[in-house]
Specification:
The structure holds four protein chains of four kinds.
Chain A (H helix, E strand, L loop, with lengths): L1 H24 L3 H25 L3 H29 L11 H25 L7 H18 L3 H23 L4 H29 L13
Chain B lengths: L1 H18 L3 H29 L2 E2 L4 E2 L1 H30 L5 H23 L3 H19 L5 H36 L8 H6 L6 H19 L7 H8 L2 H30 L2 H23 L4 H22 L1 H33 L10 H4 L1 H14 L6 H15 L3 H26 L14 H19 L3 H13 L4
Antiparallel strand pairs in B: 1-2
Chain C lengths: L2 H32 L9 H11 L3 E3 L4 H19 L15 H21 L3 H32 L4 H11 L6 H17 L18 H4 L5 H26 L10 H28 L8 H21 L1
Helix pairs in contact in C: 1-9, 1-10, 2-9, 3-4, 3-9, 4-5, 5-6, 5-7, 5-11, 6-9, 7-9, 7-11, 9-10
The chains are: A mainly alpha, B mainly alpha, C mainly alpha, D mainly alpha.
Chain lengths: 218, 486, 313, 678
């Protein structure tokens, strides 16, 4: 039973991991969003699995929230924004795909290296996911650094958030419910506000390329 | 109960100022609101300092929290009153319309609310939410003028801080994990009192990793170098009263976030580890500030960098620790809040007058606006740590701590940077204050309401330099005990 | 200090003033002889002075009271200095001041003279005063270093005591330092008294004048005073050299015999030095102004070596 | 509450009233009278206070603790012993004269700058100096010390629309702040041994400290206080800041403010640390000799009246420190008597310099006030137009040129004596080093004389060199009164010095641990604490001069018959003589300039506009500059290095958000990896 649980959870974790790499690899915007949606879905399912195997009720709610907000609302909002500001659908990257993939791989190894002392002494069934989750966080961060469009930066942040969520589930079956809800709310508001500013950037500079945001410097 | 009330006031004020469409009324309400917040905070603080921490289902307020709370309320009130004069002037010169004013005060109060929430929340998770919320609320105020630069600043602000905050959340999660491992799953597994209580049982490895994430995460918001990059942009682009609020208060709130973890680690594994990280980032910040203050061309950015410097000083103070270090750092939080907002208010008057933020274009303030010049110079001397102003005492205490704890090299580097920064700062502000004023400029003070506020702030800064009331030192001494590392 | 000493002090001071012009006359005469000229009589300076004192003085419009006051101050200063210097007897106004005070009295004289030179607004005056102050500035260290040497040898700086110590303890106080210091001070004397090779007292060629340039605007009684005071100054210096550095024979107690011996020996010593000066002046050319410093540095080094040799030997 | 405390508190109150009054009545036309009147009263109280302390009283004023933490309590305490009383006396006497002078001097600024502000800051500045020398605790000291610097800074930039005074002020405030940093470190080094900041516990702290930390503290103090005192090479600010301020303030700064540093140096070295090692004294001697010689050399070359005086302050601080250094050397060998002698000489010269430097600066103020320029080349002939100022300035010049029997001479004589007595030092090397100092001091003295002949001659004598100088008017009575007070004191302090020495000895006795008054003053005679060595009597000299001068006058008048003066033109080689033929200040210092060209490193440019004929020039312009060594080779390199490094590093703030995120990312990764290692 636990075995099965472990397999399922690890499997889903791997899915999340892979989707992250796909996002790194893709060069067009819409697939990003859909990949992100899939990743979030996997995350939700993983949460559900955890909830089922540890039969703790509040994680079901968390899972539901995850699926609704992360794999439905946010992707829709992002698509809507992209349509509104009519960005060209290219992802402008500072580091090309192969290099990005290699670096991401390196980051993954790094995160194993870092979390190793925790994993050896952890005692929750999902502990192996911790490394993956940290890897996802780092790679999300990497995406924010190397992709120039405002939208892609938001996406990167979202990927990081997914990594966090995974970490929360992995290490401690999620945070207290109230906190989780608060966090989801924050993320949602955050994305909305960033979208608003993306609009403003587009209005002021006729582009969402954050590379040109260099008026303020010393 | 009182805490709920305290949190309710700014929200109500926010809603009211947004609904009402009359400038005077808006100003009145927001002033009233802040006054009430101040009163409530004063009451809470009295309660805490006389009867010990206030606790609630989600709330926990001890001396440290109450102290920061008071600073928020005090500077917040000052900022509202200053805003009346400042926005009033811009309104009369038709630079902004009533809509913008409503928008301004709406987010002003929401911003205040979020900061209050940070201090009173007992749960680290909720504290994280609140800190993220401060970013979201203030982002709008940073982008207030909708100019290209302000939008850029706002974007950098929100993105960089969100990333940082995200890392902080990861840290929080790890802490939670360790507490769950030891305490088992429970809603208050993240509540601060519980964590400090059981700090000894927490898993050190997790704590250490967590603290790295937290100090980088919240440190981004505090403005530690090298995560400080957003700060000068945001603080210089925001409307000046908000700059004062961001520099004087928000940074301290974020610092408060770090301190909570610092205390947990102190209790768990002693002050050494987190302390040395604090010192590291403190010195980095001092260095960065020194570099950019030396060749600064924009006086609001100048002040922003000086905030980075002072956050560094505070971090060093807490990092060095010991009675003097922590006492000095706590005192420095207060001094810096007062002085920095004073400086920004002065900069606001200058900006209203000269319509430029470039240091080279500002000359002869002493001739055109004697009072502003006096307060600005006074503030400048105070902020660079000259006696007889408060900051001198707190900086000196931190230096003494360095010697008392035997951290000689750190203390000397610290002093060196202070001197360099003094030189750079004086160079800029003396060029601004003196010299032959532009021919066309008229001799007139733009903002008298603001001046009264500045006068009060300068008086307080001066008083704290000459005499520290026993009440205050008693309070600080109590707070120092919280850092005890029992 | 009884009346006898007082009388002696006054007498020997008066003597110095009285024979100062004679000294100058003698030097001039010796120079003339060495240059195989006949030259004026040795009493000529007295005639000159008398003539000057009988003349009215013409004073520049620009001049102020500084100019008027200076001659009297110069004379007074040099007299005060003379009071402290033992000439024929070791008794002198020790308590009033020591060698340093003497030097500073002469500095006072110089100070007023230099100001008076500027007072008339003539370029020569300015030139002279500038050069005078410059040269004295670089001569000063030598003089004080020489004084220090004497202080080391005799453990005192008051002139009377030095010459007393030396003449009483005789040769067992004699060190190489003494002669080095003597030589150094002698060079300084040449510089201080505007003698060749530093300055030419006989010249009136504008661009080479130093001392003469300073007193160029004086005339009549005032000029007379200035001349007399500078003659006395030279006498003073030679007396110091004679009765402080090589005081042997100077009267250490008050008796007619010893006093007369002292007088005779003093005159002999001074005459010898006068001869030396005359020889130098007729055998050497005046140095270029900016060569003088090297000469004075040399004298300073001598004085310094004097001190060191005292310590080391 | 005893008399001293009462006096002290009234002093503080009076200054406060003066300051506030000046601000309140800034519009009234009696503003100057009130503010500076109050300052004068405060100074008078200061004299009384110092007097009663010197007479045997004591001040120990403990205000409530300013702050108490962790067993450390910073109390606002003010104490006065003989030493501080001496300095309070100097400050108050000079302050008194200057306040009187200022009443009508500040009229110069009417309508241009706020008199009220000047009056207020002046009052506070005077008070702050008195507080500095009475502070009883290191923290309080640091506070009042910096406050003093800030107030003087405000006075330096008083003419705040002139860029040069603003930049001078900037240089000043930065240098003094650096100095304060060193002082703070010094105190902290002592603190680590005493665990308290009270000066009472600092007393003899040297016993608790390791030789290493003692020497460290000494160096820190020497640099820190040396900056304020203007020792080379920390003097750079002084020649700019002192002249930039209004003349009455320059007088205060040069006259007494720099002395507060001397005070603290004596206190720290003799009372706190105790002279541990001979090289301390030698180091002081070295710095002092350099300051003295270079100071006077730069003064000689200066054509700006006030900057000339400022450089001469550097020189005199050098002389003072020569005395101090010798005293330290004697102390290190336990030759207490000689140490006492040297210290007495030091203090006496400190006091004298306060008197005549303040007098000279006031004179400079009067002159610039009348001639509307600080450039001595544009003055001349003022002695006829401003006879009183001329006379008073003359006295100042005589005293600073150490002409007997004035005060400058007496103190220099004492310093010479203590140097001459250095053959008592047991150590050969030191013995041989000290004569060099004698040479330096002699050179300094003679050059100082030259400098002030030049200053006085070019400024006051001969024919006026500009219109302004030609129609200069004598300054009002109060200004003259202020100067006359100090001039009189200069003469008295010189002539009656024999009776002042014992008073100073009372002060130095507890510091050095031995009283030498009985060996120094005998009736009208003064001896250098060594009976047979030498003796001197300014009073007698004065008397003899007083007899001789009239005597000589009468003799010359009647010998060879009475003749009357004839007035005519200066001899002009046949061409009419104008002020353009006069010897200029630049020309006057030219010969010295050439002799010391190794130090001045002069550079001259000669621009000639030719005409058709190669022999006739349309006109020629000549300019020569001397090179400020320390600025060029010490300070500007450091400053430019700092700027350069900053420029190098400023790429951090590129403005690219990706870069910013990358910084965070790298920090994170690095920290995590490092953590994993440890």
């Amino acid at each position: 039973m636990i075995e099965l649980g472990n397999n399922i959870i690890n499997g889903l974790a791997v899915v999340i991991f892979l989707t992250t790499f796909i996002i790194v690899a893709h060069t067009r915007l819409y697939p990003w969003v859909s990949t992100y949606a899939i990743q979030s879905l996997a995350l939700g399912l993983l949460a559900t699995a955890v909830a089922y195997f540890t039969d703790s009720f509040h994680i079901y709610i968390v899972a539901a929230l995850a699926i609704i907000i992360k794999s439905v609302i946010i992707p829709r909002f992002l698509r809507y924004t992209m349509d509104r500001i009519r960005v060209d659908k290219e992802v402008e990257m500072l580091v090309n795909v192969p290099a990005s993939l290699l670096i991401s791989g390196g980051l993954a190894i790094l995160s194993y290296y870092i979390t190793e002392p925790i994993i050896v002494q952890g005692n929750v069934i999902t502990k192996n996911c911790l490394a993956i989750s940290i890897a996802v966080v780092l790679i999300g961060f990497f995406i924010m650094i190397t992709r120039r469009k405002a939208i892609t930066q938001i996406m990167g942040l979202m990927v990081m958030e997914n990594g966090l969520f995974l970490a929360a589930i992995a290490t401690s079956y999620g945070m207290p419910l109230i906190v989780e809800i608060g966090i989801f709310f924050d993320i949602l508001v955050g994305v909305l506000i960033m979208g608003v500013f993306a609009f403003q950037i587009n209005r002021t500079f006729e582009t969402v390329d954050t590379g040109i945001l260099r008026r303020l410097r010393d | 109960m009182i805490i709920e009330a305290l949190l309710a006031i700014p929200m109500i004020a926010a809603i009211l100022v947004y609904l009402i469409k009359h400038r005077r009324a808006i100003e009145l309400i927001s002033t009233m609101g802040m006054a009430m917040v101040l009163a409530a905070c004063a009451y809470l603080a009295w309660h805490v300092f006389s009867r010990g921490p206030v606790t609630g289902s989600f709330w926990y307020l001890d001396g440290l929290g109450a102290y920061v709370l008071l600073i928020i309320a005090f500077i917040g009130t000052a900022a509202t009153i200053y805003s009346i004069g400042y926005l009033g002037r811009e309104y009369e010169h038709h630079e902004i319309d009533l809509g913008r004013i409503r928008y301004y005060y709406l987010f002003f109060h929401v911003f205040i609310f979020t900061m209050l929430l940070v201090c009173v929340s007992s749960n680290l998770g909720i504290m994280w939410i609140a800190i993220e919320a401060t970013t979201l609320a203030s982002a709008f105020l940073v982008g207030f003028y909708n100019k290209d630069t302000s939008v850029e600043a706002a974007w950098k602000y929100i993105i960089i801080c969100s990333v940082g905050i995200t890392l902080a959340l990861l840290g929080t999660i790890l802490i939670y994990a360790s507490s769950v491992n030891s305490l088992g799953e429970s809603p208050d597994a993240l509540s601060w009192p519980t964590l400090t209580e059981h700090a000894k049982n927490l898993d050190p490895t997790l704590l250490r990793i967590a603290f790295i994430l937290v100090i980088i995460g919240y440190g981004t918001k505090v403005g530690f170098a090298p995560m400080h990059t957003w700060l000068p942009d945001a603080h210089s682009e925001a409307p000046t009263p908000i700059s004062g609020l961001l520099s004087g208060v928000l940074l301290n709130v974020a610092m408060y976030g770090i301190l909570r973890y610092h205390i947990i680690l102190t209790d768990a594994i002693g002050p050494g580890y987190s302390g040395s990280l604090l010192i590291l980032f403190g010195l980095l910040s001092l260095a960065a500030a020194a570099v950019f203050i030396l060749l600064q061309k924009d006086y609001k950015r100048l002040l922003a960098y000086s905030s980075i410097e002072h956050m560094g000083i505070i971090a060093i103070g807490f990092g060095i620790g010991g009675p003097f270090g922590i006492f000095g750092a706590l005192l420095h939080i207060l001094n810096h809040a007062i002085t920095k907002s004073l400086m920004f208010f002065g900069a606001g008057n200058i900006l209203l007058k000269f319509k430029t933020k470039s240091i080279n274009d500002v000359k002869g303030i002493a001739t055109l606006m004697p009072l502003t010049a006096a307060f600005f110079m006074g503030g400048g001397l105070a902020i660079t740590g000259s006696p007889p102003f408060g900051i001198f005492i707190s900086e000196l205490l931190i230096l003494i701590a360095g010697f008392a704890e035997g951290n000689y090299p750190i203390s000397i580097i610290y002093l060196l940077f202070l001197v360099i920064i003094f030189a750079g700062f004086m160079y800029h502000i003396s060029r601004m204050a003196f010299g032959e004023p532009p021919a066309d400029a008229t001799k007139e003070e733009p903002n008298y309401i603001g001046l009264s506020v500045m006068a009060v702030l300068l008086m307080v800064a001066l008083a704290l330099g000459l005499y520290i009331p026993h009440m205050l030192s008693g309070i600080l001494a109590n707070i120092v005990k919280i850092f005890g590392g029992s | 200090m009884g009346p006898a000493q007082i009388i002696i002090i006054i007498l020997q001071t008066a003597l110095m003033v009285a024979i100062a012009p004679l000294l100058t006359g003698i030097i001039r005469k010796l120079k003339a002889l060495m240059q195989s000229r006949k030259g004026p009589g040795v009493l000529q300076p007295y005639y000159d002075l008398y003539k000057l004192f009988c003349k009215e003085s013409v004073v520049s419009m620009n001049a102020s009271w500084v100019f008027q006051l200076t001659p009297y101050v110069c004379m007074a200063a040099v007299l005060v200095a003379a009071l402290m210097v033992p000439a024929i007897s070791t008794t002198s106004l020790n308590f009033v001041g020591d060698l340093i005070v003497v030097v500073y009295m002469l500095a006072m004289m110089r100070f007023f003279m230099a100001l008076a030179a500027l007072d008339t607004g003539s370029a020569f005056g300015g030139m002279g005063s500038s050069r005078e102050m410059t040269l004295s500035a670089i001569a000063e260290p030598t003089i004080l270093m020489a004084i220090f040497t004497m202080a080391l040898i005799a453990h005192t700086t008051s002139l009377g005591d030095i010459s007393y110590q030396l003449s009483v303890h005789g040769l067992d106080l004699v060190r190489p330092a003494l002669f080095l210091a003597f030589a150094a001070l002698f060079i300084a004397t040449l510089a201080e008294n505007a003698r060749v090779p530093v300055d030419n007292p006989a010249t009136h060629l504008e661009l080479t004048m130093i001392h003469e340039g300073m007193i160029l605007e004086y005339s009549g009684k005032q000029l007379g005073l200035m001349e007399l005071s500078s003659m006395t100054k030279l006498m003073l210096f030679l007396t110091i050299l004679a009765s402080v550095f090589v005081p042997w024979g100077i009267a250490t107690e008050i008796s007619a015999l010893s006093l007369s011996i002292g007088l005779a020996l003093l005159i002999v010593k001074v005459l010898i030095m006068a001869a030396v000066i005359a020889y130098i002046e007729s055998s050497m050319a005046k140095l270029r102004l900016f060569r003088v410093p090297s000469l004075l540095t040399l004298s300073f080094m001598m004085a310094l070596i004097a001190v060191m040799s005292f310590y080391i030997l | 509450m005893n008399t001293e405390e009462a006096l002290f508190i009234t002093l503080v109150l009076v200054s406060a009233i003066g300051a506030t009054g000046a601000l309140v009545l800034r519009k009234s036309k009696y503003c100057a009278h009130i503010s500076f009147g109050m300052a004068a009263i405060a100074a008078a109280i200061g004299i009384a206070l110092a007097g009663s302390v010197l007479a045997g009283g004591a001040l120990n004023l403990d205000l409530p603790a300013q702050l108490e933490i962790g067993g450390l309590s910073l109390t606002m305490s003010f104490t006065m012993d003989g030493l501080s009383a001496f300095f309070v006396m100097a400050i108050s006497v000079v302050g008194f004269a200057i306040s009187i002078y200022s009443v009508s001097y500040v009229r110069e600024y009417e309508g241009r700058y706020s008199i009220g502000l000047l009056g207020a800051v002046f009052n506070l500045f005077l008070l702050s100096m008195i507080l500095v020398v009475t502070a009883g605790n290191a923290i309080i000291f640091l506070i009042v010390w910096e406050v003093m610097s800030l107030l003087s800074y405000l006075l330096v930039v008083y003419e705040n629309r002139r860029n040069e005074s603003v930049s001078a002020g900037f240089l000043y405030i930065v240098m003094t702040h650096i100095g304060t940093a060193f002082i703070t470190l010094g105190f902290l080094v002592i603190f680590t041994a005493t665990a308290s900041f009270d000066f009472s516990t600092f007393q003899g702290a040297g016993a608790l400290m390791t030789p290493m930390s003692k020497s460290l503290a000494f160096l820190l103090f020497l640099i820190g206080f040396g900056t304020k005192a203007g020792i080379m090479p920390m003097h750079v600010w002084l020649p700019y800041a002192h002249p930039a301020a209004p003349s009455n303030v320059s007088a205060l700064m040069s006259g007494v403010m720099v002395k507060t540093a001397i005070f603290m140096l004596i206190k720290c070295v003799f009372e706190f640390l105790g002279v541990a090692d001979t090289w301390w004294g030698l180091l002081v001697l070295l710095a002092a000799s350099i300051s003295a010689v270079l100071g006077v050399l730069y003064a000689l070359n200066e054509i700006d009246m006030k900057r000339l005086l400022a450089y001469s302050t550097v020189e005199n601080v050098g002389i003072i420190l020569i005395g101090l250094g010798v005293s330290m050397i004697f102390m290190s060998y336990g030759l207490k008597g000689l140490a006492a002698l040297a210290l007495i000489a030091t203090l006496f010269h400190t006091f004298n310099h306060a008197l005549f430097k303040a007098l000279l600066f006031m004179g400079a103020g009067a002159v610039t006030h009348a001639a509307h320029t600080k450039n001595i080349e544009k003055m001349g002939g003022l002695i006829k137009r401003m006879p009183w100022t001329g006379a008073l300035f003359f006295i100042g010049a005589l005293s600073i040129a150490a002409i007997p029997p004035l005060n400058g001479f007496v103190s220099e004589w004492l310093i010479f004596q203590s140097l001459l007595l250095s053959f008592n030092v047991p150590e050969m090397a030191v013995k041989i080093l000290l004569p060099m100092t004698i040479g330096m001091l002699a050179l300094t003295g003679a050059l100082a004389a030259a400098c002030f002949v030049r200053a006085y001659g070019i400024t006051f004598l001969a024919a006026p060199r500009s219109e302004h100088a030609a129609e200069a008017k004598e300054v009002p009575g109060t200004m003259l009164a202020g100067m006359a007070t100090l001039a009189l004191l200069c003469v008295l302090a010189g002539v009656l010095s024999v009776y002042i020495i014992p008073a100073i000895d009372k002060i130095t006795a507890p510091v050095v641990g031995i009283s030498v008054a009985s060996k120094m003053s005998f009736g009208i005679i003064m001896k250098p604490a060594d009976d047979s060595f030498s003796s001197m009597s300014p009073l007698a000299i004065a008397a003899i001069l007083a007899i001789l001068l009239p005597l000589i006058f009468v003799i010359t008048r009647y010998y060879g018959g009475r003749k009357n003066m004839v007035y005519g033109d200066t001899w002009d080689c046949g061409t009419p003589l104008t002020s353009r033929n006069e010897y200029t200040g630049t020309a006057y210092s030219k010969s010295i300039n050439m002799i010391f060209s190794a130090i001045y490193r002069p550079s001259k440019e000669l621009v000639a506009r030719p005409t058709a004929s190669p022999y006739i020039r349309k006109d020629m312009s000549y300019a020569d500059h001397t090179e400020p060594i320390f600025e060029k080779y010490l300070y500007s390199p450091v400053a430019s290095l700092a700027i350069k490094v900053a420029r190098q590093l400023s790429f951090i703030q590129t403005g690219s958000i990706q870069a910013y995120l990358a910084y965070i990312f790298i920090t994170l990764v690095v920290l995590l990896v490092v953590f994993r290692w440890i």
